[in-house]
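Model: Ready when you are.
Researcher: Fold this.
Model:
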Amino acid sequence: MNSIRHQSVRWLAVILASGTAVIAAERKTDKPASTIPSTTALFGDKVIAKGKGVEVKQSQVDEMFITFKANRAAVGQKVSETLRPRIEADILEKLIATQLFLKMATETDKAKGKEIADLFIAEQIKQMPSEDSFNRQLISLGMTPQQFRAQILEQSTVKAVIDRELKPKIVVTDAQVKEFYDNNQDRFQEPELVKVRHILISMLDPNTGKELPPEKKTEKQRLAQKVLTRAKGGDDFVWLAKEYSDDAAAKNKGGEYVIARGQETALPEFEGAAFSLGTNQVSDLVTTRFGYHVLKVIDKAPARKIEFAKVEGRIKETLLQEEVQKQLPDYVAKLKKEAGVEIRTASEKP
């Protein structure tokens, strides 16, 4: 039910975070968009940054800019070409930093990076009906599955190096952790939860993701009504889900999902139906852009405050990472100086 457009491209929000800040600044100026040809098209594929163990070409920056635009478009945001020079400058800095950190990576760092990457990718695939659907969504965002996996592995390895280099030098006390918990109570409220079983009768072609033709839709509607009648009649819901559901991500678990109230990735129609039902109650047909859904509520849990002991470790890690981010610009500047990194403008000769 979750969309890869909001989930599996989160890595770009990290890699190109200040590019988003540039977009926010542009909205305040309300400048008209213009079309600026790529620097590569004008001057050829020049080396624009070079140093010991570092070489970045203009084509790399161009490709990242295109991917960045696709990522923003996927969440309904347009990137004006007037912002291109500023965003590309930020991309260049991140590409330089990435090469500097990868040069420092040990075998342990690479193994840790692979572990992080594998876990992240597996979690994202779980959000889609199938791995094929996941890959098709990537392609729609301008990335091949191989490119996506390579980028995730690269950035995960970079994270492992940064953590090894900077985290051991940072001290976060127990008092700081407790103070953060006490001062941010709204962050530690667990929302109301509902556990449901779910059957999806999809109105989308599993191969193309497009709507089925009218005759197929009619057939699917009849099937959805048949499944609903059997579910309300007391048939085993787990069996019905495994037999009829088009939701490949959950059908083998009997269609089980846990939904949090206000969860960003939940479909509003689905969430509304789930929280309106009583325990063991079966819904009527719920219609979403994916098709027809039949839900059965298994359990509910009210909103509650999360105990300090359960989040203490997460808070400490958050504070550590915040301090790492504060120290990172100076550390990268030091690495660039040691590597003798020089940045050339597009018009300079290599």
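Researcher: Now this one.
Model:
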Amino acid sequence: MNKGDLIEHVAKSAEITKAAAGKAVDGLFEQITAALAKGDKVSVVGFGTFLVKKRKARTGINPKTREKIQIPAKSVPAFKPGAELKSKIHRR
């Protein structure tokens, strides 16, 4: 499913226009992104938690030259699924 499909499904299930659903989906993503950029978590009960994890600096290898390179520490977005989401996926 891509963003267009998601908007279509939201519009249908909420019985709103695709334009309104598009604004809602965009707003949701903007708010999650803004919270993560500040270092905050976004928890949706039953669904999961969006958070920022910190990766430590490490030594890697350039696959072309086999030369060792230093990979700097960085923050990356992550998602931890909630119990309800896990149970619905596990049933498959």
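Researcher: Key takeaway?
Model: The beta strands are 42-44, 48-55, 58-61, 68-71, 74-81.
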